[in-house]
Specification:
Layout lengths: L7 E6 L5 H9 L2 E8 L2 E9 H9 L4 E6 L2 E12 L6 E8 L5 E11 L10 E4 L4 E7 L6 E5 L9 E2 L10 E2 L6 E7 L2 H21 L7 H9 L1
Parallel strand pairs: 1-4, 2-6, 7-10
Antiparallel strand pairs: 1-3, 2-3, 4-5, 5-6, 7-9, 8-13, 9-12, 11-13
Length: 223
């Protein structure tokens, strides 16, 4: 787990604002963005969509952007996706000094293979995959790791169990559940349902009413 390298990104000023013009920019392969903070006026710009997506995939949080020939560091504060997460609609970038403390959400990666998972009918529940941290802007890790190799059945892992590197403070609630190994009763439930169905069928056959007169009618037909 190393601090991510700061990537660079060129920007272009947005001449016209509004939904219609923003769509034109996206159709041309550029994503609308706003740069703000440090008591400076907001700068409405666009960035290359593919280049910015690559930065996200590299788990970078700080970017060195060029605005009007001037380079400055920004924190990726918010990324807005369309309804179906097909493309980025807009990006918020906040100006930062590398020496100042910032708060960001980063990915939590579980490492190790618990022996409990080798048992039949168990699953690893992992409801929390991101945690909030506070640290210097130039020390944001790409992600945090937590080893669960010794995790046993029914033992919950919460934020309080995480051990961040020096200089990093986890600000998520300590009670937040990270993961837990639990058993499932799918096979047993299916078997019970099958047995229950068979018993119901047998009861139905046993309680089927006799058709009055059927035997007499058959005898008459034989005659």
């Amino acid at each position: 787990m190393a601090t991510a390298t700061i990537p660079t990104l060129e920007t272009q000023p947005r001449e016209k604002l509004g939904t219609r013009y923003a769509k034109r920019e996206r159709d041309a392969g550029r994503t609308p963005a706003v740069i703000y903070g440090h008591k400076q006026d907001p700068a409405h710009v666009t960035v290359d969509s593919r280049a910015f997506t690559d930065i996200l995939h590299a788990e970078s949080h700080i970017v060195d952007v060029t605005v009007g020939g001037k380079s400055e560091h920004v924190l990726i504060k918010d990324v807005q996706w369309d309804t179906f997460s097909r493309y980025i609609v807009h990006v918020d970038l906040e100006r930062v000094d590398l020496s100042e403390e910032v708060e960001v959400d980063i990915e939590l990666v579980l490492v190790g293979e618990p022996k409990a998972l080798n048992q039949s009918g168990v699953v690893l529940d992992h409801p929390t995959t991101m945690v909030s941290i506070k640290c210097r802007a130039d020390a944001i890790p790409s992600h945090l790791e937590h080893n669960i190799a010794e995790l046993g059945m029914g033992e919950p892992v919460t934020v309080a169990d995480l051990t961040p590197p020096a200089g990093i403070e986890i600000t998520s609630s300590p009670e937040t559940l990270i993961c837990q190994i639990s058993g499932v009763k799918v096979a047993a439930d299916v078997e019970e349902a099958i047995e229950g169905g068979a018993e119901a069928s047998a009861d139905t056959e046993a309680s089927e009413p006799e058709v009055i007169g059927k035997e007499d009618a058959d005898e008459d037909k034989g005659e």
